Amino acid sequence: MEKKVDTRGTVMAMATYKAKPGNEAALMQLVEKHLPALRELGLATDKTNYVAQAKDGTIIEVFEWTSTSAISAAHQHPAISAIWEKMILIGEFPPISTLAETQRPFPGFAMIG
After folding, report:
1. N or C: which end of the chain has fewer CB within 10 A?
2. What pLDDT shows up at residue 8?
3. DSSP 8-state secondary structure symbol assigned to residue 98
């Protein structure tokens, strides 16, 4: 029997990260720490997440926030802020609409991991 999960109030996130030249590996290490840190604080669900890469190298991380208030709480938590501050130093956060793949219906990205 499949377990039913109540997702009322949860929010799907699609985060995009593009490393500055030479920082690809360091950014990926931070992406790998990001979701576990959110989950440990109860800010993201344990539902399956996805990490993919666009042709231009942009990383797309798809996960689920536990609520809209969890998003605000993440911005106030020192552990999450520390990860984001490191990301800002070595990367950018381009809008997903700037990715070439999104200019056509049903965009596809290469899965990572």
Report:
1. N
2. 72
3. G
